[in-house]
């Protein structure tokens, strides 16, 4: 199909792409764009995407060709593609893998059939520190201990390498996935989970073994991790967001694999077990004694980095890889000979280090639109609603005269949000509700308002958290108040309503995680509800607009209610 004035896309010379929301081909065009472009803005009628080198390299790593990208744009565009856009797509896609890292005769080589490119790279200041010698016009001998740094440098230069240098096997660990869980339920990987495993593993070839799998919360990223572990049959180190997530990994491994308790170690603030499968937290890995900060090399400044060398790991899994802290990037750069699997619901990082995930963990290997999984019943259907609330004259004045950095908190803690919360809880009296917020003072006020409803914060002990989560799962608690500590790796399958009263500024990754808390499949196609309550005409509303970029990327349409409309609003019950 050629370009057509009735199509929904306008592709511009600066590589931005405008997408008309009300066009009949909107969803089709959005699904095409999401594979190789990044969403920047999503107001009501026209969404703005941008084609970037990194978005194109991730697409190339996932198997998309430049021709397929250009065809996808052409098929949905109102006007002819600008020539420079076509040329740039061809150029950037061709750059991925034009240089390769290989191992030959005991040496790590950077090779390319493009002789002028090798001549350019051997003189590039970013790469010079890692080059040991030039073997011939097509090959550089590089420092094998700096494999990760080399890949970072090449990505910055604009020629991301295909890493074909291979991986160590790691110590053998024989186990299998169960066909029947310990809870006597049949178990097998879903088709998309198996697909993700197979694409990552790539039959054991050198081009497999490192990369990121992007799946929604509730879609079974842990199952993908277990499937990769079974393929590789090796000692595995798993890094996760917090101790509750560590325990959930252990429970899943014991329930769905033949691994025994003696084979699985918890390396946390409470225990320091190093076993064939060891699960730890980012917090533990980045712990450093106060007296040593800044004065010692990383392995001494961060004493738990020694865990990376405690066993012959064949696989390292980075759960919620978008949270990976900077010090762990540093150590990851040094362990490129280990297979590395990143798991996440979104590749968006608030610190802008997506290129480091690409270089050091690996490119995006697998991604499924959330709405596709919803259609097949693998995750719950969800309504997304923003409720805009006014501020009192007194609070408006305080907001108006406040310094810029204080404005968001004043708006986020608007007391009038509590009236909306009353109305929503009344409408969802029979549902399982999570009230989510950023500011602890605000959450404590809410807890007191609802007769001491339990609140979970960073200061809540692991034992108390697990007890409250268990009560919620069993239906003994219908409402839980949670701070951002509960954003990640939290399994509450019966939660079907989330009310967000404040968030971490404009964080798209937090929006992904919070929506994910209510997306576990529900009985009889029950609809989940995700509410964001914001103070209108403030920074709170501005940040909410940025957070909602994530919802738009995944195909969700959110509707807006004003406070006087909430009383008459009736939540849907099913997606039928």
Summarize the structure.
This protein has 576 residues and is of the alpha/beta class.
Written account of the structure:
The protein is of the alpha/beta class. It has four domains: 9-95, no CATH class; 100-163, 2-Layer Sandwich (Alpha-Beta Plaits); 191-368, 3-Layer(aba) Sandwich (Rossmann fold), CATH 3.40.50; 374-565, 3-Layer(aba) Sandwich (Rossmann fold), CATH 3.40.50. The chain has 21 helices and 23 strands. The strands form four sheets. It has a seven-stranded parallel β-sheet with strand order 12-13-11-14-15-10-16, sandwiched between helices. A seven-stranded parallel β-sheet has the order 19-20-18-21-22-17-23, with helices on both faces. β5 (100-104) and β6 form a beta hairpin. The protein is globular and about 75 Å long. The protein starts with 8 loop residues before the first strand and ends in a 14-residue tail after the last strand.
List the helices and strands and how they pair.
Elements lengths: L8 E3 L4 E5 L5 H8 L4 E4 L4 E5 L2 H9 L4 H11 L6 H13 L4 E5 L2 E5 L3 H7 L9 E6 L2 E4 L4 H11 L4 E2 L27 H11 L8 E5 L6 H12 L3 E5 L2 H14 L7 E4 L9 E5 H4 L12 H4 L13 E5 L6 H7 L6 E6 L9 H8 L2 E4 L2 H6 L6 E8 L3 H9 L2 H9 L4 H11 L5 E4 L3 H10 L5 E2 L5 H12 L5 E4 L14 E4 L7 H9 L11 E8 L3 H15 L4 E5 L14
Parallel strand pairs: 5-9, 10-15, 10-16, 11-13, 11-14, 12-13, 14-15, 17-22, 17-23, 18-20, 18-21, 19-20, 21-22
Antiparallel strand pairs: 1-2, 2-4, 3-4, 5-6, 6-8, 7-8
Helix pairs in contact: 2-4, 3-4, 6-13, 7-8, 15-16, 20-21
């Amino acid at each position: 199909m050629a370009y057509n004035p009735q199509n929904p896309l306008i592709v511009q010379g600066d590589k931005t792409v405008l997408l008309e929301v009300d066009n009949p081909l909107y969803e089709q065009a959005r699904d095409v764009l999401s594979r190789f472009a990044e969403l920047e803005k999503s107001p009501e009628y026209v969404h703005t995407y941008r084609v970037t080198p990194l978005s194109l390299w991730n697409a190339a790593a996932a198997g998309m060709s430049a021709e397929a990208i250009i065809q996808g744009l052409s098929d949905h565009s109102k006007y002819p593609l600008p020539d420079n856009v076509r040329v740039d797509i061809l150029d950037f896609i061709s750059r991925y893998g034009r240089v390769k890292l290989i191992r030959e005769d005991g040496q790590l080589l950077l090779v390319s059939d493009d002789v002028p490119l090798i001549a350019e790279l051997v003189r590039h200041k970013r790469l010079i520190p890692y080059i040991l010698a030039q073997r011939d016009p097509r090959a550089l001998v590089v420092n094998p201990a700096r494999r990760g740094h080399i890949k970072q440098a090449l990505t910055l230069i604009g020629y991301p390498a295909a890493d074909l240098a291979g991986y160590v096997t790691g110590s053998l660990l024989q186990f299998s996935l169960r066909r029947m869980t310990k809870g006597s339920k049949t178990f097998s990987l879903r088709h998309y989970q198996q697909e993700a495993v197979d694409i990552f593993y790539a039959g054991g070839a050198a081009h497999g073994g490192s990369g990121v799998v992007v799946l929604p919360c509730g879609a079974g990223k842990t199952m993908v991790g277990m499937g990769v572990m079974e393929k590789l049959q090796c000692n595995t180190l798993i890094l996760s967001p917090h101790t509750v997530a560590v325990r959930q990994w252990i429970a899943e491994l014991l329930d769905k694999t033949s691994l025994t308790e003696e084979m699985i170690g918890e390396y946390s603030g409470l225990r320091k077990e190093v076993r064939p499968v060891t699960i730890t937290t980012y917090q533990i890995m980045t712990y450093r004694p106060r007296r040593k900060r800044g004065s010692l090399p990383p392995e001494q400044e961060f004493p738990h980095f020694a865990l990376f060398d405690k066993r012959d790991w064949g696989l390292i899994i980075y759960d919620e890889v978008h949270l990976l802290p900077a010090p762990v990037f540093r150590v990851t750069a040094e362990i490129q000979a280990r297979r590395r699997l990143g798991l996440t619901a979104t590749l968006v990082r608030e610190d802008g280090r997506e290129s480091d995930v690409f270089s050091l963990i690996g490119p995006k290997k697998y991604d499924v639109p959330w709405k596709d999984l919803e259609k097949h019943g693998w995750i719950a259907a969800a309504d997304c609603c923003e409720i805009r609330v006014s501020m009192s004259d007194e609070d408006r004045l305080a907001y108006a005269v406040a310094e810029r950095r204080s404005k968001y908190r004043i708006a986020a803690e608007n007391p009038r949000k509590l009236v909306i919360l009353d109305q929503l809880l009344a409408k969802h009296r029979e549902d399982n509700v999570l009230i989510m917020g950023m500011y602890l003072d605000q959450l404590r006020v809410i807890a007191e308002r609802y007769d001491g409803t339990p609140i979970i914060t960073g200061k809540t002990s692991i034992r108390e958290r697990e007890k409250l989560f268990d009560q919620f799962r069993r239906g003994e608690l219908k409402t839980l108040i949670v701070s951002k500590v509960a954003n990640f790796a939290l399994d509450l399958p019966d939660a079907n309503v989330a009310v967000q009263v404040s968030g971490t500024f404009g964080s798209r990754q937090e929006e992904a995680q919070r929506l994910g808390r209510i997306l576990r499949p529900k009985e009889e196609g029950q609809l989940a509800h995700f509410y964001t309550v914001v103070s209108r005409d403030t920074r709170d509303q501005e940040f909410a607009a940025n957070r909602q970029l994530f919802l738009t990327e995944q195909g969700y349409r959110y509707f807006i209610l004003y406070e006087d409309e909430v009383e008459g609003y009736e939540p849907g019950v099913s997606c039928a």
